[in-house]
Specification:
Elements: H1 2-20, H2 32-44, H3 49-55, H4 60-68, E1 70-75, E2 78-79, E3 83-85, E4 92-93, H5 95-107, E5 110-115, H6 121-127, E6 132-134, H7 141-144, E7 147-149, E8 154-163, E9 178-182, H8 187-197, E10 221-225, H9 228-236, E11 242-246, H10 247-250, E12 258-260, E13 265-270, E14 273-275, H11 279-293, H12 296-303
Parallel strand pairs: 1-5, 1-6, 9-10, 9-11
Antiparallel strand pairs: 2-3, 3-4, 7-14, 8-11, 8-12, 8-13
Helix pairs in contact: 1-2, 3-4
Bound molecules: glutamic acid.
């Protein structure tokens, strides 16, 4: 019976993906058919996962993870203190890893980590390959249209890394420079907004909602890369003049011959992302808010040497 319910849930997820299309275009209303499919799954089953879930008030999405026995989580592998993978042992560590382990522990299941990038994390969530993302993922109003986010567990800031011999010391020196950013990140938009706010650029034609790093050339330009090591190599090679992203992510690329600019800007609130309207979202949020109020998250921040 359980198998049948799981098949219905998988079918439902696929139907939802077909109905909602790719991430950025999803709307909250588009997820409604999934909710009715869920109740069909529950009705069709007299015993099994959906009925168990209904009986104890647990969402079928949560029950599906429990039945699988594994929580699949998208994490970073090169962000020290957040999600970092030891190359020799393959072990992951950091506060996002510990949080994922604690969510799995609360569910009574194992945890399986998949390394994601800013560009791949939402695709993997949309396809159902992972159940949630704990990967320095900034909560934005735009993203909230497509995915659910927990209450923030950490706030970082954006800054810029440059070669010391470049002479670039602050936002003003970035005028007319080329900056490396990650595809799928908030970084380029945050940098242009900060330059406009600081009077370095006029801001004519800048609209945060429609901003596209690929086409922006007014006062600064961007090269987009799929991952951070490639941006670091491009900076050393002089392909770009600067490397812009959250300070936590930049730390591992901050070698002796490099320095940060003076300013840090654009607060980045990190949340656990789950599928839009999934029953798992509320479950995760309850855990995170509990860990914020009982000091667990402060403890993880301290343990991982995060400021
Ligand atoms: N935190 C930023 C974002 O979500 C930077 C990208 C990243 O997390 O890799 O856009």
């Amino acid at each position: 019976m359980k198998k049948k319910v799981l098949a219905v849930v998988v079918g439902m997820t696929m139907a939802m993906m077909t109905l909602t299309g790719c991430g950025a275009e999803k709307t909250a209303g588009a997820a409604e058919p999934a909710a009715s499919s869920e109740s069909v799954a529950a009705e069709e089953t007299e015993s099994g996962a959906a009925a168990d879930a209904a009986a104890d008030g647990m969402s079928t999405d949560v029950q599906a993870i429990i039945d699988r026995g594994v929580l699949r989580v998208g994490v970073k592998n090169a962000v020290i203190g957040f999600g970092f993978q030891d190359e020799l042992t393959g072990e992951y560590s950091g506060m996002e890893i510990s949080l994922a382990e604690k969510i799995a522990e609360s569910l009574g299941v194992d945890v399986e980590f998949t390394t994601v990038t800013a560009a791949t994390r939402t695709e993997l969530l949309d396809s159902g390959d992972i159940d949630c993302v704990l990967a320095t993922f900034t909560i934005t109003d735009e993203r909230k249209q497509s995915w659910d986010f927990s209450t923030p567990y950490y706030t970082d800031y954006v800054t810029v890394l440059v070669q010391k011999d470049s002479g670039i010391a602050g936002l003003a020196d970035l005028k007319d420079k080329k900056v490396g950013v990650s595809s799928g990140s908030t970084s380029a938009r945050s940098l242009v907004a900060a330059m406009v706010e600081n009077g370095v650029m006029s801001g004519d034609g800048f609209d945060a909602k429609t901003f596209d790093p690929a086409t922006w050339t007014d006062g600064i330009s961007f090269a987009q890369y799929d991952d951070y090591p490639t941006i670091s190599t491009a900076l050393s090679a002089g392909e770009v003049d600067a490397f812009c992203v959250d300070k936590s992510i930049l730390a591992v690329y901050h070698t002796d011959d490099r320095t940060y600019i003076d300013e840090k800007f654009a607060p980045q609130e990190y949340g656990v992302a789950t599928k839009k309207d999934s029953g798992f979202s509320a479950y995760v949020d309850e855990l995170v808010t509990g860990w914020l109020s009982d000091g667990t998250i402060d403890g993880l921040i301290a343990e991982n040497g995060i400021e």
